[in-house]
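Two proteins follow. First one:
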Amino acid sequence: MPTIEPIGTVGELRRALNDRFIRHASVKDEVRHNLICKMKAGEDLFPGVIGYDDTVVPQLVNAILSRHNFILLGLRGQAKTRILRSLVGLLDEVIPVVAGCEINDDPLDPICPACRARLAREGDEVKVAWLPRKSRYVEKLATPDVTIADILGDIDPIKAARGGLELSSELTIHYGLLPRANRGLFAINELPDLAGKIQVGLFNILQEGDVQIKGYPVRLPLDVLMVFTANPEDYTARGKIITPLKDRIGSEIRTHYPVTRHLAMSITAQEAWLARYGRDVSAEVPSYVREVVEEIAFQARADKRIDKRSGVSQRLPITCIENVVSNAERRALLGNERLAVARVTDVYAALPSITGKFELEYEGELKGAEAVARDIIRASVASVFNGYFDGVDTRGVVEWFELGGSLMLADTSSSAEVLDRARGVQGLVELAEHAGVAPDAAPALLASAVDFVLEGLYALKRIGRSDEQGYHALQPQPRRQARPEPMFDDDVPARGTKKYYN
């Protein structure tokens, strides 16, 4: 419904609409119409949703154009809730409602018994209120303790007592969340967590478009767009969507994680808190550090020690890079530096923001979450380092360590300290240019690039690193002695004897 000048009564509203020949539209028609207008104008349909332009968004558009109730099905951290909340932008700015009505009744076509009684009593003098679009979105996180009364409603004996009404009167209805979302959007997050009998209570609204509240022979024809989210893992872990309910949901739309590292970096840059600009320290994150942090999520999703059914949320790189910047900020404060530049070694300091973001398989449980995370970080550094230093000759640095050199650095080492010690390693500082850092860059940037080179060589197993020696030559691994092959079958000892080769 187009925006109309503020109107105070039902009579004024009726005359204004008649003058403009405006036809009443349902919520689904309203959302569909506004979507079409946005598409024609070339506007961003779902602001803040990145990486779905060619996959999820076309399916969303089709569902809305089809006037479907729909469900977003995907693993954790795939922007499902963000998409649902962005649907508010497809509603009209304001709509007229009967003032004081609990279910946002249409002043010209009320369904609420109390509103019909008011119109019969007061006629065109009934007051009209204007409801903004944000108030037309109702969201409920499904939990096992949710009752049918929470969703649909129940008898309110207090209302009956105050009004001197019989309990059988429609005026004693206490409306649940779904009726209160009338003429708006009703979203249920984590739908499988709803008990089966509560899911059954949604059958009518999805198919016939009405609800029946306990104890009343009345069906309320609600005008609402129903949207849901669910995690496929929850189908077996905590609950499931019952088949008749799935059958009544118009469209099932699958979400996914970012398909490229650069798309993931855009999401992280949008969501993470990195602007640490203040009187004491300003922070900067080089591109290779951002890539390493993002690659951790990609490596974790492919690692066989991590449960793929649970997924690795996009929240992992978001919280990780925030911790990385905080560690750089801490180092700058300790070293009395004004510019805090993140280093690759800061990623190891961000382990607390990584280990809680994935579920381990049996093999991973045996090794431990921190050990698995360290392996993943090292693999991520190797992948990113290869992209920057493919074809670059790093033998000079490796040979320096092989000749007995060692370099002791800590994650708290100041920029001046890192550069002073790095200049003693032949060719090390010069390699920083291949990381996109100019030779005359700020010391903090140069120190970060040097750290990237050292960590990259360590990740590729060209040099070693330990708490005692710092960076050092890679120690040759002792060769395992091959088992002697038995010459005859009689030479093979029986299982359980000391000579049996296992």
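Second one, unrelated to the first:
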Amino acid sequence: MNLATLTDFSREWAFVDVFRHSRPWIGNKDWLDTLMCREVDGHYPAGRYVAIWTGPGAVEIPGFDVTRIVSNRQGRIEFEVRPADGGIKLSIPAERRDAVRDPHVWMPGFENPKSPFHPLFFERLAPFEVIRFMKWQRTETSTTRAWEQRARPEDIRWSGEDGVPIEVMIDLANTRGAHPWFCMPHLADDGYVRRFARLVKERLRPDLKAYIEYSNEVWNWVYPATHYADAEGKRLKLGSPDFGRFYAQRSVEVFRIWEEELGRERLVRVLASQFVNPWLTEQVLTWKDAYEHADALAVAPYFGHEFGQPERAPAVASLTAPQLLDRLAVEVDGANRKLIEAQAALARKYGLQLVAYEGGPHLVGVGGAENNEALTALFIAANRHPRMGEILKRHYRNWFAAGGGVYVAFVYVEAPSKVGSWGVLEFQDQPVGDAPKCQAILGVLQKR
């Protein structure tokens, strides 16, 4: 399972201290504010929250979903929350911001817990043997170069640009008994990679392996990593495809550092490629025999991308959800299955496991079509339709029948919107019976 990005509007309640999710300080010369549990349609726990802090500074908890201040004394405020869409706001005087230190906002019943993870978040991860932390690491937009830039456990919030602390990700893997999948930032120097690997060696349970990938989708021009890899490939005169060759070359360099620190037997070294482009896959695998230094070929076997193209949007938006699902079913057993088989053949040819770093329905408008409200409504309805679960099951059967291995679903909990209906669950406490994609995944896992 891929985890979602940690934000103040996360529907994944990863942590019982909701200040860990909070928004960076906003405000003016007088007051600084931060927000938590914002715009989540009331899907977070009700009851008595506790805010604590050290230092002589003042803290206020004004309005929004807060219905009553129960008690207020220096260093501690208890307050009642009735969840809606406003969330929780915490305010401090701007001129004395340094006088408020180590703030926490505990969910009801979780003050000073033994574990930082919310029990429901933790419990619903139980079926999954691999957890991919790409979003928690903020890999897609990472500017991290040096070890000194990393997020630390003592940071007041874990929702910043540097992502969730490595120690916290390792602790989740250890307590959940899941193999962690880490993505090395595309700008990270060798020192960062080595220190990351050493920390994993020190903290990760010896019975767990670490999946290691250099960045994420270093073929997708939406992300800075692809532009960086292309520029580096050209600078080094690697030849076409410059980004693909640099990606393969840097991946192997990263793998070697991890091998030196953790040992090959505890690693799954991942080379990733674009699912719809087997030609690129072969270029990546064969550049300087990169496949000889890897364990797995990773692709994202999404289906349905074509329905969000701007030239098709008006016609697609006129369909009913069942009609769109009919077309998705044809694709799953047609073009999508053929691409799975093509990528599986390449994995076999080069002696690699075939794994999915992401996958599932890719129903989202692009190139301006995301602003077509009828199209977005159709895509959300199709993702919620019971038949989506059956189509997903068929997709998974095709994947495993072709020789595919580990399949990392995308994404654990996220709200549907014009930028996609990616969530396996739409909110953390959604009943599984109302979540056809989650039902499909759990059904497949029970049979394997």
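SUMMARY FIELD: The longest strand covers residues 47-54. The chain is about 35% helix and 15% strand.
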